[in-house]
Amino acid sequence: MDLFEEDDDFEIIQYLNYQRRSYTVHERINHMLAWDDHDFRVRFRLGKNVVRNLLEYIEDEIASQTTRNNAVTPINKLLLTLRFYATGNFLITAGDFIGVSKTTACLIVRDVSVAIAKLRPIFIRMPETESEIRDLQLRFYQIARFPRTIGAIDCTHIKIQSPGGPDAEYFRNRKGYFSLNVQTIACPGLKIMDVVARWPGSCHDQTIFKKSRIYNKLVSGYWKNSLIVADSGYANTQYVVTPYLNPSNDIEELYNESIIRTRNPVERSYGVLKRRFPVLSFGSRLKLETTQAVIVACCVLHNLACDNNDLEPPELFNMDLPINEEFSLREDHEPEVGNARKQLTEEYFPFLN
């Protein structure tokens, strides 16, 4: 019993002698003035004009409720988040770059990512009007004369840490690591028109597509006879077309060449997106919900950069990105009766000069 009393006394003495760490205010650089346009883009992956435009959309939502206690300004919150996206590094490193603690950096990345992700309806959208649909079909047709196309679909894996819990293994993909399987649809200008970032890495691309809002719209005839081009991980239907795995004649060879070139923008968009924001290449150690917000936020920023003719991200110095692995299952699904691929190879491609 004496032993327990001595332990209690020791804890009390420790509590009474505890001294709180002194309050430290770190110097915060004005990064908008400290760097020229080139150096700014290298560090934050976006130009100053793009950052200013973005800030106008989210400034009110991310602003601190008070300016007391050296509160972090909205522009510094945004730049910290962009710096985190640009390096995929530890939060403490991004915090040091702006002059805040790791805990503050974590909260800022979460809040700013959610605020940017909320801009999705503005910057990430499929064609709605007849003129938008016709314009998009024409732009796809000009690539390789593939008709009626309004989008190129694919999935990419974003590495995450184990989310824990009884369902954690659902997030382990075929390569053996934990990931989110993210579906996107791209246009010829490499902009992302739709993104789904909620499915675990073990889910098949076709499963994600059939559970998506885009699939329901296609089936309901929302875009009439328009097509989505995909790889052979998807099934051939009236609205989705894929290449032949084993083309048996010149018509099928011509069809394959055309569809492969037409769906190339979605693959290129992944390369641009992950080079611009290496956090998507190296993987996320954030909570699952925050990681999902980061993915959608990066897609919004990618489209914002495309709108400003910033299609080529700046070079990454002393940083080698992981190889973008190919996950699509090369399997030939049972084609749907009356599928568009059969119709095109019988009625369109034989007469294409």
TrEMBL record:
UniProtKB keywords: Hydrolase, Metal-binding, Nuclease, Nucleus
Gene Ontology molecular function, alphabetical: hydrolase activity; metal ion binding; nuclease activity
Matches recorded under InterPro entries: HARBI1-like, HARBI1_dom
Keyword Metal-binding: yes
Coarse class of the protein's main subcellular location: nucleus
One annotated Gene Ontology cellular component of this protein: nucleus
Domain DDE Tnp4 as annotated: residue spans: 153-303
Cofactor(s) for this UniProt protein: a divalent metal cation
Pfam families: DDE_Tnp_4
Keyword Hydrolase included in the entry's annotation: yes
Highest taxon listed in the record's lineage: Eukaryota
Family label: Belongs to the HARBI1 family.
Protein name as annotated: DDE Tnp4 domain-containing protein
